[in-house]
């Protein structure tokens, strides 16, 4: 399998092969060859339907039956490759050659690649394209960069301040302290403090302990499983108690949540019903949805357990088996490689649930969670030992 974007006779080409046939898309217009014009390029695929967009002009290749997952386990190359024999002959039109020009702001599956000296695994013959200390994103939030004898300076829009326009003017005099994040509230010319796990109060200056975690929205706990390396990932299990009056919300996401290829096991609410989704590989995931509406949203405590036995998934609600499904009878993938990461209630501040879960869940969880047990462990996990924000004593 491969996916390749290249420049061919002045046109941009997208080529990909998911295991059966090679799809080729090419832009209608040529790119400017004067070297002074930046172009915006968007390319990708949903299943085997591809799209290619150059400066707002879109080409879409309608999907035909066939493979729908890109299964690659190689490094990701930008601008060229370390060895030309790594390039599939179908991935380019002619002999593969390296790109000459400038590339900036590469975003892969909603994550920006940092094109710096230290972040990539390797590279060669790459220089600074801007040629000045200003670079591309030195000044944040639409600030304007000027080259100075001593380096650079940023001219900031009226809502922002700081040496690189990184700080909201509403937070410049904040009292949130070291245990809080300042969240600007431009409409009220003010701010609120969002407290780190184990702290509360208007300015996050009161230390707290809890065994029941209360999520109020824009809340999350990220817990790292210390026993992950010893787990038998073909037989996973998680159980917890929860209470809520909301019909939507993500309670648990076992998995890294970094890109769409990460394995995960998710538990949440959708349209007032319990929803469980498991992905063991290649995004082969079947949402399991309880048929009874609103039974989970009555502000009573409910006990949910999800058991994964290779590809067989069992879901218990209040100790009654409510869902049972073999999500892949072919047993192609049987292990939940979740990376030892468990999110509760949502994801890091700024990462929206509907985007990270690609629409499987719509909102953060609002309610309470307690008594979380992983696998067959004899002890409940200590939620306060994770990291997180905006979680309080329930």
List the helices and strands and how they pair.
Blueprint: E1 2-8, E2 11-17, E3 22-26, E4 41-46, E5 49-54, E6 57-61, E7 106-108, E8 111-113, E9 144-148, E10 151-155, E11 160-161, E12 167-168, E13 180-185, E14 190-195, E15 199-200, E16 206-207, E17 213-224, E18 235-243, E19 249-254, E20 264-270, E21 273-279, E22 288-289, E23 302-309, E24 312-317, E25 320-326, E26 341-344, H1 353-356, E27 366-374, E28 387-393
Antiparallel strand pairs: 1-2, 2-3, 4-5, 5-6, 7-8, 9-10, 11-12, 13-14, 15-16, 17-26, 17-27, 17-28, 18-23, 18-27, 19-20, 19-26, 20-21, 21-22, 23-24, 24-25
Low-confidence stretches: none
Instruction: Specify the helix fraction band.
Output: under 10%
> What's the CATH class label of the largest domain?
Mainly Beta
Number of domains: 4
By CATH, the architecture of the largest domain is named Sandwich
What's the mean pLDDT score? 87
Radius of gyration (CA) equals 24 Å
Per DSSP, the total helix count is: 1
The class by helix and strand makeup works out as mainly beta
Order of H and E elements: EEEEEEEEEEEEEEEEEEEEEEEEEEHEE
Instruction: Count the E strands.
Output: 28
What CATH calls the topology of the largest domain is Jelly Rolls
Ends apart, CA distance between termini? 49 Å
Biggest sheet record: 12 strands, antiparallel
Strand content: 35-45%
The general outline is globular
């Amino acid at each position: 399998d491969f996916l390749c974007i290249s420049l061919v006779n002045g046109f941009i080409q997208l080529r990909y092969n998911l295991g059966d046939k090679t799809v080729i898309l090419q832009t209608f217009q040529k790119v400017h060859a004067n070297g002074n014009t930046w172009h915006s390029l968007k390319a990708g695929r949903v299943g085997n339907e591809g799209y290619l967009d150059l400066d707002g002009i879109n080409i879409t290749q309608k999907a035909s039956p066939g493979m729908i997952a890109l299964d690659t386990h190689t490094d990701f190359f930008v601008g060229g490759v370390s060895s030309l024999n790594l390039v599939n002959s179908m991935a380019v039109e002619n002999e593969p050659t390296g790109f000459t020009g400038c590339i900036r702001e590469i975003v892969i599956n909603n994550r920006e690649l940092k094109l710096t000296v230290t972040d990539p695994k390797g590279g060669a013959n790459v220089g600074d394209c801007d040629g000045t200390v200003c670079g591309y994103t030195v000044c944040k939030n639409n600030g304007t960069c000027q080259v100075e004898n001593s380096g650079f300076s940023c001219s900031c829009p009226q809502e922002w301040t700081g040496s690189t326009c990184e700080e909201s003017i509403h937070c410049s005099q904040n009292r949130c302290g070291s245990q809080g994040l300042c969240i600007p509230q431009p409409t009220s010319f003010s701010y609120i403090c969002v407290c780190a796990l184990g702290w509360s109060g208007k300015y996050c200056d009161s230390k707290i302990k809890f065994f029941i975690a209360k999520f109020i929205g824009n809340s999350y706990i990220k817990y790292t499983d210390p026993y992950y390396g010893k787990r038998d990932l073909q037989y996973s299990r998680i159980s917890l108690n929860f209470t809520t009056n909301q019909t939507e919300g993500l309670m648990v996401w076992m998995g890294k949540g970094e890109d769409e290829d990460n394995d995960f096991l998710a538990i949440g609410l959708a349209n007032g019903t319990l929803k469980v989704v498991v992905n063991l590989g290649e995004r082969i995931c079947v949402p399991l949805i309880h048929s009874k509406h609103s039974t989970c949203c009555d502000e009573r405590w409910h006990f949910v357990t999800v058991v994964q036995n290779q590809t067989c998934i069992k879901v218990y609600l209040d100790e009654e088996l409510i869902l049972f499904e073999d999500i892949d009878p072919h047993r192609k993938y049987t292990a939940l490689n979740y990376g030892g990461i468990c999110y509760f209630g949502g994801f890091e501040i700024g990462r929206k649930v509907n985007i990270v879960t690609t629409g499987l869940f719509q909102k953060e969880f609002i309610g309470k969670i307690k008594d979380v047990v992983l696998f067959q462990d004899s002890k409940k996990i200590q939620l306060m030992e994770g990291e997180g924000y905006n979680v309080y004593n329930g």
